[in-house]
TrEMBL record:
This is Heparan-alpha-glucosaminide N-acetyltransferase catalytic domain-containing protein. PANTHER family: LD22376P. The keyword Disulfide bond does not apply. Coiled coil: none annotated. Keywords: Membrane, Transmembrane, Transmembrane helix. The keyword Transmembrane applies. The chain crosses the membrane at residues 98-115, 185-206, 212-232, 253-275, 295-314.
Length: 323
C-alpha cells in the first residue's frame, strides 16, 4: 500500500500542475493529490499498531511528528491486545481508539463553528478568507510564518481532525495483526466503502476540503485508505500486480530520493535516440510537448517504471534503506 501512495506522489509531482484533477484542489473538492497526505498518515500509524511490541518510542522523528506521537499514545489504549488475539478481540479493543478519533472530528468542528471568527465574516464560514482555522493560525503563528498570509494547508487546528486518520490507521493495523480471513478482509473493504458514502453524503452539507481537513474530507479519504488496505491485504489481482508496489513500499526511502532525481532521468532519456541525437532523442520528443497532460503523464509513468526496476533490484539484493 505504501508503494501505491509513493507512486501517486511521483505522478502528482510531475503532472500536478498540468492536469487539474491530479494536482491539489484549490480549496474545496478532492483530487488525486489530496489523498497522498492522509494516505501516508494512515500507513505510518498502521505500522505502529503492527510493531508496537518492538517499537522504540524515543527518537528524532517521533519527537517532531505530532501524528506519530499521537499514534503511540493511542496504541497504549489497546496495549492489552496480544499479537495472537482474535478478530473479535481486535474489534473490541479498537472501538476505544475509534471513539477518540471521532471525538477529534467533533471537537474540531465545534471549534470551527464557535471559535474566533475573522472580523466581518459570518459565523461558520469556510472560505479561504473567512474561516476559524486560518484565523487561529494567524493569531498563533502570524501571517509571515504561514504558507501564505490567508491560510496554511498544515495549520494548527486542522491537525486535530488528522488524528482521526491516525486512529483509523492504528485500528486497521490491529485488525490486520489479528490475521483476519479473506471474508473478514472483504468486510473491511465494505467498511471503507461505507465511510466513503458517509463522507460523500456529509460533503453535501460540509465541503470536502483538504486544507481545513473537514469531517467530510476525513471520512472520504479514510474510507479510501481502509477499502484499499482490505483489497491489498486480500491480494485481489494477485501477487504479480502487487509486486512492483511492494518493491516500492519496502524501499520507500530509496524511492523518495530517486523521485527527486528527475535530472538524472532526463539525461538517461536524452541518451536514447533515433537518427539524430539532438532532435531524435526521447527527451526531446517528450519535452517538445511537455505542457500537454498526456505527455507529462507518459513521462511520469516512464520515470516510475525505472524507479520500480531499481527498487526491485535492491529488494532482490536484500538492500533496504530505512531510518
Amino acid at each position: 500500500m505504501r508503494g501505491v501512495v509513493m507512486s501517486i506522489m511521483l505522478i502528482v509531482d510531475v503532472c500536478g500542475k498540468a492536469v487539474p484533477s491530479i494536482g491539489h484542489a484549490p480549496w474545496n473538492g478532492l483530487h488525486l493529490a489530496d489523498i497522498v497526505m492522509p494516505g501516508f498518515i494512515f500507513i505510518d500509524t498502521l505500522t505502529v499498531g503492527l510493531d508496537l511490541y518492538t517499537f522504540r518510542a524515543p527518537g528524532i522523528l517521533q519527537r517532531i511528528a505530532v501524528c506519530y506521537a499521537a499514534a503511540v499514545l493511542l496504541a497504549k489504549l489497546v496495549s492489552d491486545l496480544s499479537p495472537n488475539d482474535t478478530v473479535k478481540g481486535a474489534l473490541k479493543n479498537n472501538s476505544r481508539v475509534l471513539v477518540v478519533g471521532l471525538l477529534c472530528i467533533v471537537i474540531n468542528w465545534a471549534i470551527m463553528l464557535l471559535g474566533p471568527q475573522p472580523k466581518g465574516c459570518p459565523r461558520g464560514s469556510l472560505t479561504p478568507q473567512c474561516n476559524v482555522a486560518s484565523n487561529i493560525d494567524r493569531m498563533v503563528f502570524g501571517p509571515e510564518h504561514m504558507y501564505n498570509p490567508l491560510w496554511d494547508p498544515e495549520g494548527l487546528l486542522s491537525t486535530l481532525p488528522s488524528l482521526a486518520t491516525v486512529a483509523l490507521g492504528l485500528a486497521c493495523g490491529k485488525f490486520i495483526q489479528s490475521r483476519p480471513s479473506h471474508t473478514e478482509l472483504l468486510r473491511l473493504v465494505g467498511c471503507g466503502l461505507l465511510l466513503d458514502l458517509c463522507g460523500m453524503g456529509l460533503g453535501i452539507v460540509i465541503p470536502v476540503s483538504k486544507v481545513l481537513w473537514t469531517p467530510s474530507y476525513c471520512l472520504l479519504t479514510g474510507g479510501i485508505c481502509v477499502a484499499f488496505l482490505g483489497i491489498v491485504s486480500s491480494r485481489v489481482g494477485g501477487n504479480v500486480v502487487l509486486a512492483p508496489f511492494k518493491w516500492l513500499g519496502m524501499n520507500a526511502i530509496s524511492f523518495f530520493c530517486l523521485s527527486d532525481c528527475s535530472g538524472l532521468f532526463s539525461c538517461l532519456l536524452g541518451s536514447i535516440y533515433v537518427a539524430d541525437p539532438t532532435t531524435g532523442n526521447v527527451l526531446y520528443v517528450l519535452t517538445k510537448g511537455y505542457t500537454q497532460a498526456p505527455v507529462m503523464l507518459t513521462y511520469a509513468l516512464l520515470q516510475l517504471g525505472l524507479w520500480m526496476w531499481i527498487c526491485r533490484w535492491l529488494s532482490m539484493q536484500g538492500i533496504f534503506v530505512t531510518i
